[in-house]
Amino acid sequence: MEEEEIKQLAKLIKNSAYSVVLTGAGMSTESGLLEFRSSEGMWKEYDPHILASREALENNYPEFRSFYLWRIEALKKAAPHKGHQVLSHWEKKGLLQAVLTQNVDGFHQEAGSREVMELHGNLRKIICADCSCQSDLELFKQGLSCPKCSGFLRPGVVLFGEGLPAKNWERALDHLERADLLIVIGTSLEVTPVNQIPQFFKDKGAQVLINKNPTPFNNLFDLFIQGSCGEILHQTDEILGKTI
What structural domains and CATH numbers belong to the chain? Predict the structure, then answer.
């Protein structure tokens, strides 16, 4: 059954004039990073409202900083997988116009994707919590303050209690307005407002969900393929390679 579904996905991509991908934590876990919301994810051990919130940044900075240093170090043990490489390849071939991602690891760009909207920010980017100026990762590692205003340094990610980056969200919606195919990969669609995207796109074109497990939103999709994100993308690419 999965083979037939992958063939359907390849056909949709081949016939699409404007394809957009939305990726979530499932892409990152296949690179070796912990997923936040699974039963084995890091939120089972750490309370995000204590360590990954605006409140923690302002009132519990030492633990906030230690938590994010741990996450930054974890990136060194992981790398883009074949699924990331496939999406980059499709962009170069003109089969994919944009990647919208909830992930903060930068693996899409590392794999070569260029049109990437980071809806939850980037873990490797360091900014000042007060003046918002970009700073150096080494200063954050050393526990130093912002060189310009002496404010706390922090990763450029969306914390609990903060809104999404307006510019990237607007660019994401612009791509979705033009798209006739949306492929959602590796997300349980639990986080607002990104989980509203399939509903927003419902009457605009075909929607495909690729995920390890079914979600409560499966009924919004024309096609659901259950399994490894990287493997399914790789198999789809092989079929496309034979037909294009």
Answer: 1-33+80-120+163-244 (3.40.50.1220), 34-77+124-157 (3.30.1600.10)
